[in-house]
Amino acid sequence: MSTPAERPRLRELRLARGWTQADVAERLGQLAWSRHRVQIGVNANMVAKWERGAKGVSARYRRLLADLYRVTVSQLGLPDAEPSTAEPADPDSLVTVLDKAVELLDQLGGAGRNLRPRVLAALTSEALSRRTLLSMLDPGTDGPSGEAVDPVELDALADGYDAAYPTAAPATLMTAVSAHVRIVDDALHGPLSAGRRQLLLRNRMRVAIIAGRLAGSVGNTLAARAYFAQAADDAFTLGDHLLAAIAIGYAAELATSQAQPAAALAHLRAANALDPPDATVRSWLACIEATAHAGSGHPSAAREALDRAHAALTDATACAVAWFTDHNAPRLAAVTEHIMCCSVGFGAA
Asked: Are residues 311 and 333 part of one domain?
């Protein structure tokens, strides 16, 4: 157990602001989303362990905590990581990643077993790093036919990926998601009824978006763009303009995160031209637009887009796309706070 002298200053910094540990967890989540467009898995229990010194704080969370409390990382009072005398497991090693992937597939239930042959086939590859995992599944690998997989089971797997996304290691989850896309690809190349083809296209569209977000989170922007483009193509094939707008919106969000506001705004014009019939999605697109304008130094345009985002969300009910949960009032509030801070830096518009 750590002594008081060994404990970080996190509790002191939190209490000085009058926040609870749950407040800190929520604010960290909002900060990670507004600045980096990533979801994190932090709760009050984890914050409590950090404050007691019972759990180490990774580099990513150190940076977020420093930004949250507006101090330097060194002022958090966290001890430097001590080298371990034991040989640590390499988080990027093939065996480690595949072990985690198999564990994840088991957690996803019976449908996850259909992915195992694809994942285990990667053992034939050599010296795969985290980034090469994004393309490690050979399209020619023999595996179970996607035609034999029930679309209902595929949708259940997609639900599992969404649930795992905030906390699973990106490379681990990407292994399963990539295999899933391959299975659906195989099925779509075979003889199918019109109804089954639509179900599979809809499923691939959803999982391709998950794959694009994961690829973006590990810095593989080329793969991310390709997945979002695939999702948009599937949505257009289905004739579903709302799904197409969502897919293009994710491409715009990626461009914003890569400091490419002009590209982001071009994507957003294309998405809005589809006139998406859902207030939550329209608010989300306006929120991305506000972030793009703020990043390019146009605070007036950013605030105007924010006004549209707030107005649309006020009119919103439940999103027509049940799995789309990436936009809500707390996230809009976090982005608004971030953009207002940026606007102060640029001065009055």
From this structure: yes
